[in-house]
Structure formats: C-alpha cells, structure tokens
Automatic annotation (TrEMBL):
The lineage of its organism: Bacteria, Bacillati, Actinomycetota, Actinomycetes, Bifidobacteriales. Its EC number is 6.-.-.-. Pfam families: Carboxyl_trans. It is an enzyme of class 6 (ligase). This is Acyl-CoA carboxylase subunit beta.
Length: 564
C-alpha cells in the first residue's frame, strides 16, 4: 500500500475515532443530566416520571450554560475580575444559592444562554438574602428589558419575603440598541428601590463600571461598596467631560473607588479587591435585621478579664487638656464586644466616625466625634455622614450610642457657602426623628449647637451621661470671655495691664462656674456623672432597660420635609 493510501486510511480511522468519542461524550452528558434530573425529583413523584427520558433541549441548555461560564471566566479573569457566579460563591454560604430564570431573556436554540444579569436567593450567615449580579461577559452587562424585568421581579420577591437585597454591579449601562425600553427599566428599578428603602436593607457592590443613569440604582441604596481597582461610578465619563469642558481626566480620577470613598462620600467602604468588598458586605449584613419589622440578630457573649482591662484603659485615653487630640477609636474599642468595630465611610469626613459594633452580643450603631481630625468639629461633610448613618440605624432598629467630644460647627465662609445651615440641619432631623434606643456619653466637651445635635436629651436621646471632666456650654471658656468681658479686656489694654493674664483668670472663673456639667445635671439634661471605667457598664444597662421601647406615631402626616 502506498504512503498516500496509508495516510488516507489513518485519516479515516482518526475521523471515525473522533466521531465515536464525540458520540460517547454526548451520551455521557445525557446520562449525567438525566441522573441530575432524577435526583431533583421529589420523593412523591411516580416511577414513570423518574423513567422519563431527558429531552435533548435540556442537554443543550446545560451545555450552553457551561460554555457561557467558561467564556465568562476567560473574559473576566483576563481583567483581574471574577465572573458573576464566582462572586455569588463569595457572597453566599456554601451551596445555598438558588438561581431564578437562568435562561430568561436568552434563546437556547440560537446559542444565547440568558440575559446579562443573574438573580436569585441564598443564605448569608444562615439568613436568606436576595441578589442580582450583572454579568459583564454578556453584552457588557448592559441593561435591557429582559434584565430590568428580572431585577424588578427579584426586588418584588425580596419585599414580599422581607429579606435584604445585594446588587453586584458590573455594567456598561443602558443597552443602546433597545433605546427608551432600556431607560424605562431603570425607572422601574429606581421606583422599586425607593419602595424597599427603609423596609429591607439594600447594599450595592460596585465591581466594574457604573455610568450614566445607572449610578442612581446604587445611590438610592443603604450602602455602596467599591474596590480599589476596576470600580468606577460617574454620571458622565471622561470622554464626555473632555468634549463638554475640555478637561482631561482618567476614569479613576473622575469616579474611582478612592475618589468616592475619600472625596465625594458617595461610597461607604473601599475594598482591597472583590473578595474584600464582598466580605465587608457579609459582615455588615451580620449586624442588620432582615427587615424593618425585626430586631437585629443577637450573638452569644460572655464578658471577662479582657473587658475589665479595657474599662481600666478608658481613664488613660482622653487627655484632661481639652485642646490635646486623641484617637476616639481607642475609646470605642474599649467599650464594644471584643474591640470589634466595623467602620462606615472610614475615609470620608474623618472628624466624625460611624459604624457597627456589638454590646453584650447585641448590634448597635456607634457615632462619635474624632478629636484626632480637626478637633472633632462638625462640618458639612461630617454632618451628612452622621445624619445618614443615624437614619440607617433608626430604619433597622439598631440602638444608637453617641460619644461626644465636639467644639462646635466649623466656622468660616467656605462652610456657610457650602450650606452648613441646610446640611447641618440634617443631623438634627435624623436624631430628632429617631425612635430607637439612644444613649449618649459626653467624653470631654460639648459646645454650642453641636452639643444639642449630637444626641442631647433635648433632641430625643433616652439616657445621657458625662465623664467628670466634661465641659458643656454655649462656648468654650476663652471664646465666651472674649465676648462677655470684651469691654473689661479693652479697658485693661488701655490701662497697660496684662490682658492675657486677665483673660486667663476670667476664663478659669467662667470654666469653674459655667462650663462644667453641673448645670446640665441640675437641669436633668445629664442623667449621671460616671467614671470612664463605668462607660460600658452604664451603656449596657441602659440598653437593657430600653429594650422594650416602641415606636410612636405623633400625628397623621404623610412624612416630614427633611432638609436635602
């Protein structure tokens, strides 16, 4: 036989072998799928149902799903990103995710595995949570009619089930090919998000682009989490900005994760990567109830030597000198269970800190001034940060513990022009309308309007305490003396006397008679003066006493008109 004939025989044999292998693989897939179908049939099904053959279309759909995920991995991993379903594995407890509408919006016969969003429910710390995860590997994760319908259906179910919703955002925005139909779906999602606001927790995790009108989906939710890489949010992108204003700017500089965490305050946490961002989501959900009708989950806790040592540290943390800075985070960690404190908006408006912790196994919201940053003053950004967090806690039944060391609202034309009146009023509105248990401790000083708004008894706090060295007044001693004794100081100057010595003497007198907390005690604005070591104990006892506090409707209004 010639070499050519031998080659032809070899080729024919190889082709036959390939066909046989392909047929065997298809049969194996069919058997595998059939077995899966059998396993999914409930015990009550008849034997005839179990013996039903698996349709070829089902096998094709399963193959299509596998191919789609393989393709997604190739596209996403090359960008340093996870696929939508890999992200769900990070979010949910193992083997608890149940997908809805896997092939909805697809065309199995034409090889389209489904729409650009994955929806369903799973467990986080054993509690049910809804999710929609945009899939950038499918048409750039863009939103069209099919995607909008799936998301709205998911949100409707979540509200009916009274469970939180997590949105994993990675999208090119509205699908241009669908025009106004895509924009209409955004309108539906906006409305659903507003309906769910304050009823079920909503968390948005930005893991890719989020641009144009799409940014308002996460903007309406309770918390926004971003990553250092790949995460962007902006209404108009760099190209449009350049065309409109001539400014050249990168995506990260315009709307990257750091920008929105540190400058704009749009985001609430900056993850190192996708895994960190999703882990923070799981952590926050552990502190929140599933809905506004429930109390937050509680955890086993037993105090011991560690707590006693932490209590002793409290008396050494805060300096007696009211101008000397210190880190209020040390105070927080000495008060809460295991020293664990989950900050919210850590990089934004750092003169105030807010976040979640537990006291005796029960979740609470912590609000505190941070003397390490601009003396803990309240400015426009800190005011909005505090107000927003207090509203979140009140929505979901978390008691609010406020630690006060504030010199007042920040003065200056920049603050006045930035709307300190309007934006500072948000703190008042938040505290005055909150009906959860509220306990306030004045650590060192509380001056002027800032004393009133930071959880004072007059604005609605239930229990208020102060440390022995605390100062409560309209102004600090020096500022008050400069106003009250202006003429006396002027006369001393004209007479050639030591003005500074006189000012210091008058300030000491004013501080002894007015700035201390005695007047507040006498008026009942402070319930008790406590030693620093007693702080955790009195907060714990107060929260236990207030556990039965219930909400009260004061009138029949539709809602208030909050300063916005």
């Amino acid at each position: 036989m010639s070499d050519v004939s031998s080659d032809r025989v070899s080729d024919t044999t190889a082709k036959k072998a390939d066909k046989a292998a392909a047929a065997a693989e298809a049969e194996a897939v069919k058997r595998e799928t059939a077995q899966a179908a059998v396993e999914q049939i409930s015990n009550g099904d008849s034997q005839s149902q179990i013996r039903q053959p698996v349709r070829d279309a089902i096998i094709k759909a399963a193959q299509l799903a596998r191919e789609a995920e393989t393709s997604a991995r190739k596209r996403q991993h090359g960008k340093g990103k996870h696929t939508a379903r890999e992200r769900l594995d990070l979010l949910f407890d193992a083997d608890t995710f149940e997908e809805m509408g896997r092939f909805s919006g697809g065309d199995i016969n034409k090889g389209k595995a489904g729409s650009a969003v994955v929806t369903g429910f799973g467990k986080v710390h054993g509690r049910t949570v809804g999710v929609y995860a945009q899939d950038f590997s499918v048409r750039g994760g863009t939103l069209g009619q099919a995607e909008g319908l799936k998301i709205c259906h998911l949100m409707d179910m979540a509200m009916q089930m009274k469970v939180p919703v997590v949105a994993l955002i990675d999208s090119g925005g509205a699908r241009i090919q669908e025009g106004v139909a895509a924009l209409t779906q955004y309108g539906h999602i906006f409305r659903k998000t507003c309906q769910a606001s304050g009823f079920i927790p909503q968390i948005s995790v930005i893991l890719g682009p989020c641009a144009g009108g799409a940014v308002y989906c996460p903007a309406l939710t309770d918390l926004i989490i971003m990553t250092k890489e790949n995460s962007n949010m902006f209404v108009t992108g760099p190209d449009v900005v350049k065309a409109a204003t001539g400014e050249t700017i990168s995506m990260d500089e315009l709307g990257g994760g750091y920008v929105h965490n540190a400058k704009s305050g749009v985001a609430h946490y900056l993850g190192e990567d996708e895994a960190d961002a999703i882990d923070y989501t799981r952590t926050v959900l552990a502190y929140l109830p599933s809905n506004s009708d429930e109390k937050a989950p509680t955890y086993a806790y037993a105090s011991g030597h560690t707590e006693r040592e932490a209590a002793k540290r409290l008396k050494t943390i805060v300096p007696a000198n009211d101008r000397q800075p210190y880190d209020v985070l040390e105070v927080v960690r000495a008060i809460v269970d295991y020293g664990e404190f989950v900050q919210v908006q850590e990089l934004f408006a750092q003169s105030a800190i807010v976040g979640f912790a537990c006291i005796s196994g029960k979740p609470v919201g912590i609000v505190a001034n941070q003397p390490n940053v601009r003396a803990g003053i309240l400015d426009v950004d800190a005011s909005e940060k505090v107000a927003r967090f207090v509203r979140l806690c009140d929505s979901f039944n978390l008691p609010i513990v406020t630690l006060v060391d504030v010199p007042g609202y920040k003065p200056g034309s920049d603050q006045e022009h930035a709307g300190i009146i309007r934006r500072g009023a948000k703190v008042i509105y938040a505290y005055a309308n909150a009906q959860v248990p509220m306990v306030t401790v004045i650590l060192r000083k509380a001056f002027g309007g800032a004393y009133i708004v930071m959880g004072s008894k007059s604005i609605g706090a239930d229990m208020n305490f102060a440390w022995p060295t605390s100062q409560i007044a309209v102004l600090g001693a020096t500022g008050a003396v400069n106003i009250i004794h202006r003429k006396d100081l002027q006369k001393a100057k004209e007479a050639g006397q030591d003005v500074e010595a006189l000012r210091s003497k008058l300030a000491d007198e004013y501080e002894a008679s007015t700035v201390n907390a005695n007047l507040s005690l006498e008026m009942g604005e402070i319930d008790a003066m406590i030693d620093p070591e007693q702080t955790r104990e009195v907060i714990e006892e107060s929260l236990a006493m207030l556990a039965s506090k219930r909400r009260v409707s004061h009138n029949d209004k539709h809602h208030g008109n909050q300063p916005l």
